[in-house]
Predict the 3D structure of the following.
Amino acid sequence: MTDRSPIPYLDLKRVNDTFQPRLSEAVDRVVRSGWYLRGEETRRFEEEFAAYCGVKYCVGTGNGLDALTLILLAYRELGLLVPGDEVIVPANTYIATIFAVLRAGLRPVLCEPSPLDHNMDVEMMERLVTPCTRVLLPVHLYGCLARMDDICRVAREHNLLVVEDAAQAHGAALPPLEEGQPLRRAGSLGHAAAFSFYPAKNLGALGDGGAVTTNDEFLARMVRSIANYGSPVKHIHDFPGLNSRLDEVQAAVLSVKLPRLDEDNARRRDIARRYALGICWERLGCPCRDGLPYNAAYYLDDSPAGRMRHVWHVFPVITPRRDELMRHLESQGVYTQMHYPVPPHRQKVLQGELGTCSLPVTERLASQELSLPLWPTMTDDEVQHVIDALNIL
Ligand SMILES: Cc1ncc(COP(=O)(O)O)c(C=O)c1O
């Protein structure tokens, strides 16, 4: 054990304290307003978040799982999907992605990730397309954008919908297609996208929250109706609905936090770069090239891959010594997590839903991934503590 203070995986109190007193003022304003759902705060945040993502519409929802489910249900009501249609999803995602597909009565088809960026392997994805495929559902895992240009090309060739699961990627962006144009942000890269504002996310509320973003007016209207008991106008229920709305308190909180998202993501990138350059990767048994992790390009802004703005929701270390490393770090006062040690296809609840699958890359990641502490208000000393603790192993 060291005499330095312990480093939690994430210290949300310290993150949210830096938004005070504006967070408490925003909550207080809503409490005093007497209006708690479907009001001015939600309308304003939806407008701000749509503008931030670079889309025309944003619809607040109760959480990220509902946001994804609502997009798929809305496409069903609009006649673009029918029960049993196939949706290609990454096998190494949080289980919510797959639950959303099943809740919408569709069939998830699991695709292996690329070991380079842990996102959907686009070549395999293309091989999985069948006449029953209707949707490609990439997840921007850990804050790293999936290969959206390639995914959208495949979608165009096969006439498929592209739904982004952007729950881990608020603010992640591709460079503009032409100079002088804005960045192309997560949430604007497919036909529709789902976000989660779970408190630990890069843009986190003080409870559950989510959003759908899209440029499709019909889809946005349908999502809003289904999320409000299938009601397009008061007293009229045209569709089987859910109750899933972003509430006024969470919307007010998110409006306080959104203006600092880019700055917070820049600090996340800075910490990721420090980890990449400071840790002795070879000694940890991590796949490396020239002493840097094999995916080093993502850490270095001047490389072609580095031009993609990775937002480091999670900093993954991939090593066969994962469990030993986790115990060692804990003995040094550094707390880590795993994303995700039991992959969805191994979960009891999905047995019988997914057919038999052989997913060796997904299984290797599940047994080897360790996530280091990374949040925007970590100090440089704390980052160095993590690096030192790893380098003495
Ligand atoms: C990739 C991914 N998709 C969907 C979700 C679901 O979001 P929520 O927890 O807000 O329902 C999460 C949340 O952790 C996630 O990480």
